[in-house]
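Data's thin. Show one?
=====
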Amino acid sequence: ADGAPLADKEVLAGAVGEFVSHYRAHIADHSRPFPGAVETLIDMQNAGAVCVICTNKREALAVALLEALDLTDCFSAIVGGDNASAAKPDPAPVRLSMAQAGFEPDAVINAGRAVFIGDSDTDIRAAKNTGVPVLLHNQGYGPLSEAAHVDGAFDQFDQLPNLVRGLIK
């Protein structure tokens, strides 16, 4: 945009590789679950919910983070941004997540059964593009200029089960 030459592809690939190596080595140095998140996930699973992750992060890095935080048992599947045909907000990774959770590929069949829980405009658009309701965690990643388009919002994870029950038929 400013007229600077594009980076050489090999130089760029090397820089990205260096970044990913550093990121992986320090993936959980400052990462912690939000207060109440783990307990809420476990309670929801015990109530019959199937919880999956749909992230634009590379799947291997998402798995590494969950392993470092000892959270892999909280999720039935993990779909990374490198596993679907497109990244969120495209519906492809959400549909893939739903399929891995055992849902039928047809969104109409899943109406009233699936809820997307997100923390950014990208998540809100991805859920809406897929045709599933979306709940917004107000304390998450952001930005949140699309917050008016959600089906509910919460600040504390103990609020989440009631919101989900209100959307599931």
